[in-house]
Write a structure and sequence with these properties.
Elements lengths: L8 H20 L2 H5 L6 E4 L4 E4 L1 H14 L4 E9 L3 E11 L13 E12 L5 E8 L1 H10 L9 H15 L5 H4 L8
Parallel strand pairs: 1-6
Antiparallel strand pairs: 1-2, 3-4, 4-5, 5-6
Length: 185
């Protein structure tokens, strides 16, 4: 595999602006502007092995995550460039006010460190946002706020565990599991 050429400073600046606009528009919940940052939206959520591919699927992802965390926000830690991506480390945070998949709202707040790869093709089109994070850290924060010494919290805890277990049986997206290693020269 040949080492790809590093883009020019103008290309890096244009990529960085697009990624920062993308982040800003997500916080504002301006989904049309977010979707305009890539012609064919695609999110790959590596911890869950889920792909949201296409405008309708991505709009559904936005709806579901902002229902679960209506105050979702971020703090960028670092932004880096690679030959084909902008890599952003950030804190994602929010309050669990709605269902997260089948997990009922706990009212718990989370703050989780994440990394997102904004991948560009050879025409400088954003083709994917690939997100990595520790889902256990998030779940621990969301469920850890339930005081289990209070019997009144036991039914909610049981519903959370049932929801989590039902979600854990979902099959991973083959696009994320059927990979082949690169050939290095």
């Amino acid at each position: 595999m040949p080492i790809p050429a590093f883009p020019t400073p103008d290309v890096l600046a244009a990529r960085q602006k697009l990624v920062l606009d993308h982040f800003h528009d997500e916080v504002r919940k301006d989904w049309d502007d977010v979707l305009s940052t890539f012609p064919h939206p695609r999110y790959e959520l590596i911890p869950q092995m889920i792909v949201h591919d296409g405008k309708e699927a991505v709009r559904g992802y936005y709806h579901d995550t902002r229902t679960a965390f209506p105050d979702q926000d971020h703090e960028i830690i670092e932004l880096r460039h690679s030959p084909d991506a902008v890599i952003v480390e950030f804190w994602l945070m929010g309050t669990h006010r709605g269902y997260l998949g089948k997990i009922p709202p706990t009212g718990g707040r989370f703050r989780v460190r994440m990394t997102a790869y904004f991948v560009f093709d050879d025409t400088e089109t954003l083709v994917c946002e690939r997100i990595y994070f520790d889902s256990m850290t998030m779940l621990k924060q969301l469920l850890g706020g339930l005081n289990l010494k209070r019997p009144s919290n036991w039914p909610l805890a049981a519903r959370c565990i049932r929801g989590l277990l039902s979600m854990s049986s979902q099959k991973p997206d083959p696009a994320l599991t059927n990979t082949s290693p690169p050939t290095f020269e």
